[in-house]
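User: My collaborator sent over this chain with a note saying "see what the structure looks like." That's all I know about it. Can you take a look?
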Amino acid sequence: MFTATFTFAKGDYDDEFLRLDEAIAQVARSTPGYLGEEAWENPDSGLISTVYYWDSLEALQRLVDDPRHLAAKQLQGRWLNGYHITIAQILRSYGDGGIAHPLNGSPLRPEVDQMQAGGPVDVAGER
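Assistant: Without extra context I'll predict from the sequence alone. Here is the result:
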């Protein structure tokens, strides 16, 4: 599994931005391999960060190659005051289930190993 994190400084949005943003969101959500997303805003810096979860790089690439995404990339300077993209592979994903998360129930949960083997698992998967 992979993430694509889009961090940006908000600029001035217009109707074209809002239409394109919604179209890209619909494309992402309908792309086979899309697992979910989360968004965060830092009140101190004003930066917004959206993390998209994908089951493969190929799934992510389908969104990247979509004409609406390519158009937004070309026009981003009209609406944003800077951005940064980070693509990462997910090695582990786990929690106590007390909060909603796009990867709840994913196969990358070391608790299953812990329960079966009776010992803790660290972030590298070592006991």
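A starting point for your reply to your collaborator: Residues 24 and 74 are 14 Å apart (CA to CA).
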